[in-house]
Write a structure and sequence with these properties.
This protein has about 425 residues and is α/β, with parallel strands linked by helices. The protein is about 40% helix and about 20% strand. An eight-stranded mixed sheet has the order 1-7-5-2-8-9-12-13, sandwiched between helices. Strands 16-15-14-17-18-19 form a six-stranded parallel sheet, sandwiched between helices. A three-stranded mixed sheet has the order 3-4-6, with no helix packed on it. The radius of gyration is 23 Å and the shape is elongated. Strand 17, helix 13 and strand 18 form a beta-alpha-beta unit.
């Protein structure tokens, strides 16, 4: 359908509209900048911390009768498939008033994309969404490069590019980010400070880190925790099927995540190399998503016979891989939150993680905290967990208790209260 501005609003129609008990609910436009992959059936949501945050909160905010939730995205050519939100999620195709007379869909899409990028800084987001200055706009990752007359809430997940060292030889940060990205990231965050009515951080550490770096008052920043779904990790899975699928060893130490430099997997590898050979023979090291530096470090340490690599893993298989681990080690140098800590705890696995940035906040007293740069200390704690059955039981029990501190429903309630506070 076309609205009065000539914009094509491609929100799917449905008879199952959410009822409201409020005659004038607050319009909340959520910039659903999803991370999408092109699959056989179009563009599909990619699992990840940022996507999970926007998805889980959007789904729950839509249940509040005093909010009129409007998740949207811009796309000239593609439609996103986000199960559970498709009845609400709308595609805004702008500019609809332009007519490109060509049979080539590719050329038409290219021209419209170019026009959109050209005029975007001069067109308000209110105009594109059909909103007003009384509405609330939420951006879960960055903010649009366009004017916004309504009230803006911006979410900060971390400031990795601004905190980690730039490596000229690799032409990237230890987070795997280019200098150009870092400069854009800095500009975007300054823009958030200038324009946002309220800033939301995913952890107390991220709030403190952001406030210190940009020298602003922490009172401007609210904390709304990220979370996991504990029941997903505690379900019963066909462990033998998953073990066979990935050729997993009988017992293993698990690192689950990417292998960017800031994840500090090389220190874990060096720690594993310090373990006694009898422990290495019994407990292999499983590393997901390895890169060249990862395999080079393993080879340099002479432990290639004891290390097992897994490439890309579907979300459905992740919990089983956690559940079969003897211990999960998360040696990261910097995290805005650190979901793998909670994922392992929810799976009934003892956790060893870094004692820096947000990880002590997330882990509480339910994990063994280590200096992420001390390979010898890390090796000692790994051996202690593997050989002390009482310690393992204690960590597992504390892990189950710790994850109770985190709830998507509670996070949604906090986000709802922030929206209401802007009225």
């Amino acid at each position: 359908m076309n609205n009065n501005n000539g914009i094509i609003d491609q929100r799917p129609t449905t008879n199952d509209q959410r009822p409201t008990t409020n005659d004038q609910p607050i319009a909340v436009h959520l910039n659903f900048r999803a991370f999408m992959n092109k699959g056989k059936n179009g563009f599909n949501a990619v699992a990840g911390g940022i996507f999970a945050y926007q998805y889980e909160l959007t789904k729950r905010l839509a249940q509040y009768d005093d909010l009129n939730v409007d998740p949207f995205y811009f796309s000239v050519r593609h439609r996103y498939d986000v199960p559970g939100l498709n009845s609400l999620l709308r595609r805004i195709f702008f500019p609809a008033r332009f007519t490109i007379r060509t049979k080539s869909h590719g050329i038409r899409s290219f021209v419209l994309n170019f026009l959109f990028r050209l005029i975007r800084p001069f067109i308000s987001l209110d105009f594109l969404t059909g909103g007003s200055k009384d509405d609330v706009y939420v951006s879960f990752f960055g903010i649009p490069n366009m004017p916004i007359k309504g009230k803006l809430i911006a979410v900060i997940h971390d400031i990795v590019p601004l905190r980690l060292e730039y490596d000229p030889s690799r032409k990237e940060h230890t987070g795997g980010l280019s200098r150009d990205f870092m400069e854009t990231f800095l500009k975007d965050n300054k823009d958030i400070i200038r324009r946002a009515s309220k800033i939301v951080a995913v952890s107390k550490y991220t709030r403190k880190d952001f406030a210190e770096y940009f020298n602003i008052d922490e009172s401007r920043i609210e904390v709304v925790y990220s979370n996991i779904k504990p029941f997903v990790y505690s379900r019963e899975y066909d462990l033998n099927l998953i073990r066979e699928k990935y050729n997993l060893p009988e017992r293993y130490i698990l690192y689950f995540g990417s292998c960017h430099k800031r994840k500090n997997v090389e220190t874990l590898i060096r720690a594993y190399a310090k373990l006694h050979e009898t422990i290495q023979s019994e407990y292999k090291l499983v590393i997901t998503n390895p890169v060249e530096d990862t395999t080079d470090c393993v080879n340099d340490c002479g432990i290639s016979d004891y290390v097992h690599y897994i490439e890309a893993i579907p979300e459905a298989d992740k919990p089983a891989i956690y559940q079969m681990a003897s211990v999960s080690v998360w040696p990261s140098l910097y995290e805005g939150f650190g979901l793998p800590v909670l994922e392992a705890m929810a799976s009934g696995v003892p956790v060893i993680c870094s004692n820096v940035t947000s990880m002590p906040e997330v882990a509480g007293d339910a994990a063994i905290l280590v200096d992420p740069l001390d390979a010898s200390g890390m090796a000692r704690e790994i051996e202690r967990v593997l050989t002390d059955s009482e310690l393992r039981k204690e960590l597992i029990a504390k892990g189950y208790e710790n994850i109770k501190r985190f709830s998507w429903d509670e996070s949604a309630k906090k986000f709802h209260d922030i929206i209401m506070s802007l009225q």
